[in-house]
Every structure is written in C-alpha cells, then in structure tokens.
Amino acid sequence: MSEPASLNADGKQINNIRIEAPMPANKRWLCKRKALLFIVVLGMLQSSCTRYRDIDQIISQYDSTDFSSLRDRTVLFRSRGLTRASSIYFVGTYETSCSPYIVEVNDSEGNITEIRNHLVIESCGKDYLSKKEIELVVKRYLMFNLCSIQVDAEGNVYINPYEQELPILLRRSSGAGPRDLSRFSWYKGNWYVRK
C-alpha cells in the first residue's frame, strides 16, 4: 500500500513522508518518568561522589586538630540571628538532660551579644555553665568552619560540617571508644562515618 503524496509550500509533490500519530499520554508520561529517574539517579551519584570527596577534605583538615578545649561540650549552629549580622548557636555539655544555652553572636566581630538560659532554667532549675565557659567554647568553635561539633569526655569528636543534624563523622580518640561506635562505620585512620 503506498502512502498518499504530499505537497510542499511550493506545490511540488513530496514522496515518502510519514505522518505518525501523536504519542499516547500514558507513553509520554512513562518517557518523562524515565528521564526524571535518570536525572535523579545521576544527581545522587554525583552527590555521593562529592560527599566522600568533601569528607576526605574535612578529615585532612581536622585530623590533627586539638579539640581538647571543647571536651564534654556541644556546639551547634542553629540559625541566623535576629539582626542581619548575627547567628544563633546552641551550647551545652555533651551528656546532659538539660536544654542548651541559646547564644547569639555578632558575626562580624565574633563576640557574644546575648546568652539566653531560660530553657536551661526550665529543664534543670539552675545554670550548668558559666558565662566565661560559654564564651571560651564559642570562641574556640568559631575557629572551625563546621555546623556542629560535639566532644565527649573521652575526647571522641563528632562533627557535622554541613547540617544541623546528627553528626556524620566521628574521630575516635586513642582513649576509650565511644559508646555509640556501632552507629558508625570505619572510614579510614581513626575516622568513622555514620551508617
């Protein structure tokens, strides 16, 4: 069976032109879904590779860093402050049932503008860190470019360089091992990554 001849804009006959019906909607949806899935998987692979490259960079940067001034302390970047050039941090001890102190820091000068202890008083009934201790912890923390640092009493260092979430890296001290080591997998040297 031969296809009907078609005419171009000049009125000349064009042979062998095939006009196909549009793709059904369900097939278009399936093609779009496959393309989207491909993009997502490609992004995950790229992110995964970047993550471990970043982890290697963090490890090399902080492998021999002395965190002893932060022993038994936790510092977490919480958010931008109420003023344009300030940030809010949570500061506390590593193992406590008490709430953390809310500390506002002037970003340009690096000094503390306010320490709020109302959550500490509500949860513990009294302060557990002095103003001087909080100032020293914050001053030391600001030297690092990390979102969260926790150091236990044995000197094991927990880090989340990027997010206000659970630490993703653990630098195990040469002393006693951390109690939660089973939540981490050995990565290299004395460094572990969260499972």
Q: Which radius of gyration do the C-alpha atoms yield?
A: 29 Å
- Tell me the strand order in the biggest sheet: 6-5-4-3-7-8-9-11-10
Strand tally? 11
What separation lies between the terminal Cα atoms? Answer: 64 Å
Largest beta sheet, briefly? 9 strands, antiparallel
Structural class: alpha+beta
Please tell me the overall pLDDT.
81
Describe what you observe in this structure.
This protein is α+β, with helices and mostly antiparallel strands. It has three helices and eleven strands; from the N terminus they run ββαββββααβββββ. It has helices at residues 25-62, 118-124, 131-141; strands spanning 6-7, 13-14, 73-80, 86-93, 101-106, 112-116, 148-151, 157-160, 169-171, 184-188, 191-194. The strands form two sheets. Strands 6-5-4-3-7-8-9-11-10 form a nine-stranded antiparallel beta sheet. A two-stranded antiparallel ribbon has the order 1-2. Strand 1 and strand 2 form a beta hairpin. The longest helix is centred in the N-terminal third of the chain and has 38 residues, at 25-62. Mean pLDDT is 81; it is low at 44-52.
What is the fold's blueprint, element by element?
Layout (H helix, E strand, L loop, with lengths): L5 E2 L5 E2 L10 H38 L10 E8 L5 E8 L7 E6 L5 E5 L1 H7 L6 H11 L6 E4 L5 E4 L8 E3 L12 E5 L2 E4 L1
Antiparallel strand pairs: 1-2, 3-4, 3-7, 4-5, 5-6, 7-8, 8-9, 9-11, 10-11
